[in-house]
Each structure stands twice: as C-alpha cells, then as structure tokens.
Design goal:
heterodimer, A: mainly beta, four-stranded antiparallel beta sheet, 11 strands, B: mainly beta, five-stranded mixed beta sheet
C-alpha cells in the first residue's frame, strides 16, 4: 500500500513565476492538507480539502490556492512566487473521523 | 489551539530510555495530546496520541499528568533511527463532518542519539 506521494521532489523557480505541486493521498483517505515548512521551523498549515472543497485555511495569502479531484488527489498552486516562498511543501492525508495524519516526503521549492 | 512548550534539544545514549517533556498549561478539556516526529529529509510521522490516560503503542509510551498540563513521550530504548525532531501538538476534538482538523506545529525538540 503506497503512502502519500508528492511530485516533484525538488523544484527551482524564479521570482514571479507560478508553480503547481501534486499530491496523491494514502489509499482510502479522503482528506488532504497542505503545509509549508521553512528551514529550521515546524510545518505551517496552508489549507485542507475535503469533498473537493477547501474546508479551512491558514494564514496564507490568496496567491496560494488548491484543488482536490474526485479521486481525492490534490494540487497546490502558488502564483507570483516570492523568495520567501522557498520551503518544503508537505502534503498530508487522512480519513475523516480519524485522528492520524500521514505525510508525504514533501516537495522542496527553491525560488531564485 | 492551545500552545505547547518543549525543550529545543535533548541528547540520549543509544539503547537507553528517553523522556521527552511537553508543557501545555492552557489545555482544554477537548484537546487531545498528539506527538509526531520528523526524521531528516522526511515528512512528519505520527507517533502516539492520548486524552487522559497513559497510552502505549509499538513506537512509544505517552504519560499524561493528572491535571493534563504536561505530558512525556517515552522511548523505551533509543536507537540511532530515533534521532529526529519531536513535536508535541494539542488538537481539539470538536469537529463536524468534513471540517478541517489541522495540526499546529511548534518548533519541537531535536533529539540526538549518541552511539
């Protein structure tokens, strides 16, 4: 049983560009959350998707948007990239009603 | 979510027990205590969670103070593979179907295991 898979593993972009990160949840999971982790810090919640809708959002600007597909996979889009967007982006999946989250290994985004 | 306080770093010798403390003096009655750990170059990994009673699983034990204002994650025999950042997180149980139940991470405790 594959766990949470994220692609790509690494990505280099320049300021002002747009980026799309992808996540496939663990088999049977219906909820996907995205987190941003800056170097040396704990992950910060971006938003969560359930039933193809954004259910809750953290303190991130509208440049960060997402989508969940009928097969529960998800995308994170970031527009107008800033140097400060350089971070590890983590996807986590869970099954509604259960406490445990499963995380992928993340996408390391570098903005030059 | 209520806040937790953890030491920035701890060291342990291999094959010895490790006690990782967490203070959460503002915990509410519906807050579960969760522990996740993050190994180098990986995403966080669930370790254990509990509400009031002590909990055991194959990875660790969780000891919760009677007043619930503090807890301790216990690794019974540390191995080199246990070197990681350990996060103590409070998570409110209150939810309705489909609503988000995010995790609020702090800075965690960096555990170093010495051979």
């Amino acid at each position: 049983d594959a766990g949470v898979t994220q692609s790509p593993t690494h990505l280099i972009k320049t300021r002002g560009q747009q980026v799309t990160l992808r996540c496939s949840p663990k088999s049977g999971h219906d909820t996907v959350s995205w987190y941003q982790q800056a170097l040396g810090q704990g992950p910060q919640f971006i938003f969560q998707y359930y039933e193809e809708e954004e259910r809750q959002r953290g303190n991130f600007p509208d440049r960060f948007s997402g989508h969940q597909f009928p097969n529960y996979s998800s995308e994170l889009n970031v527009n107008a990239l800033l140097l400060g967007d350089s971070a590890l982006y983590l996807c986590a999946s869970s099954l509604t009603g259960l406490e445990k989250l499963f995380f992928g290994s993340g996408t390391q985004l570098s903005v030059l | 979510d209520a806040k937790t306080t953890q030491p920035n770093s701890m060291e342990s010798n291999e094959e010895e027990p490790v006690h990782l403390p967490c203070n959460h003096s503002t915990i509410s009655g519906t807050d579960y205590i969760h522990w996740y750990r993050q190994l180098p170059s990986q995403g966080p990994e669930y370790v254990i969670h509990g509400l009031t009673s002590n909990v055991n699983n194959r990875m660790a034990s969780l000891a919760i103070a009677e007043d619930r204002k503090s807890s301790t994650l216990i690794l019974h025999r540390a191995t080199l593979r246990d070197a990681a950042v350990y996060y103590c997180i409070l998570r409110d149980l209150t939810f309705s179907s489909g609503s988000a139940r995010q995790l609020t991470f702090g800075s965690g405790t960096q555990l170093t295991v010495l051979p």
